[in-house]
Amino acid sequence: MLLATIAGLIVTIWTFGATGFADIVAVARRLGLGGFLLFCAWSLGTFVLLGAAWLAAAPGERTARIGRFTWARMLREAVSDLLPFSQLGGIVVAARSLTVAGIPTPRVYGSLVVDLTTEMAAQLVYTLFGLALMASLLIGDGTAVSLRPAILGGTAIMVVIILFFFVAQRSALDLTGRIGERFIPGSQVALSDIRAELARIYLRRDRVAIAFGFNLAAWVASGLGGWLALHLMGARISLWDVLSLESLIFTLRSVAFFIPGALGVQEVAYALTAPLFGLPPESALALSLAKRARDVAIGLPTLLCWQFAEARQIAARAGGR
Q1: Would you give the end-to-end CA distance of the chain in angstroms?
Q2: pLDDT (tens digit per residue) in 201-217
Q3: Is the pTM of this model over 0.90?
Q4: Which residues contact 184 (CB under 8 A, 6 or more apart)?
Q5: What are 55-98's pLDDT values in tens digits?
Q6: Contacts (Cβ under 8 Å, ≥6 apart) of 234
Q7: pLDDT of residue 171
């Protein structure tokens, strides 16, 4: 993971340098402090949608707990984006935050699997929607021809990953449990209880559908956030083009799930694909830079609060001995 992080950082620096770092910063500065805070606020609203999706996948939990589930989703993204862990590390830490809050462990892990499943299904729908919007580019003979293998290949890999997860949920659950026990002692419980909870949740098809709907809304909201940032930076690009571009970026990021924060992958993807939609590379990389800054602005305080809470729990356990 450390080597992947270093390699991603090198690729990011090279991409910014090749495009022109000064030009990228000049575009990004148009966002301004007020625009950046608005962009962060929009992202926080997206986290509420993600928290609602996870909550919907946990029948039996009160609606008032949406704040707790939203916090868990923020923690999951912060760990995945800012620490040298894969996406799985963020998932384990997020699950841990809910179990510590007193939510039954089988319910946490069962709802986690359902939430991941509906999130992947929603991403697949969003990706296919984006591909449909750019179908004329992919079947034509323009500049998209050279990128068509990467675009379609990345989409195919994502579909395979999603289908594999659909049919191997029990194995994925076992793997998550073993990793959780290794890095966070005490997080593993009887898997039979988790499987029973998972089966019970899937019987609530209405809740599964609601979780899917919230996750799909979150994907679209993330795309709209990209359009908002570009609009505030003065870029002239249609909403539909941004949604198509963002669906493609999200797909490539998902394929590179083993690289922390998709460092380097996101930047190269923006630089290569943005011109297909008439967006200059420096504007696309300014958006990527704004996203990285947002991840730090939201994720760093989240990680600090998490560490503070963990330290308090350790101190409380030590004091009770």
Answers
A1: 37
A2: 989 999 999 999 999 99
A3: no
A4: 92, 93, 96
A5: 999 998 999 999 999 999 999 999 988 887 667 788 889 998 99
A6: 27, 30
A7: 65
Q: pLDDT value at position 315?
A: 73
> In the chain, which residues have pLDDT < 70?
1-2, 85-86, 135-148, 168-191, 257, 318-321
Rounded CA-CA distance 282/260 in Å is 23
Q: At what angle do helices 169-183 and 105-133 cross, to 10 degrees?
A: 120
| SS3 annotation, the chain | CHHHHHHHHHHHHHHHHHHCHHHHHHHHHCCHHHHHHHHHHHHHHHHHHHHHHHHHCCCCCCHHHHHHHHHHHHHHHHHHHHCCCCHHHHHHHHHHHHHHCCCCHHHHHHHHHHHHHHHHHHHHHHHHHHHHHCHHHHHCCCHHHCCHHHHHHHHHHHHHHHHHHHHCHHHHHHHHHHHHHHHCCCCCCCHHHHHHHHHHHHHCHHHHHHHHHHHHHHHHHHHHHHHHHHHHCCCCCCHHHHHHHHHHHHHHHHHCCCCHHHCCHHHHHHHHHHHHHCCCHHHHHHHHHHHHHHHHHHHHHHHHHHHHHHHHHHHHHHHCC
Q: How many residues does the chain have?
A: 321
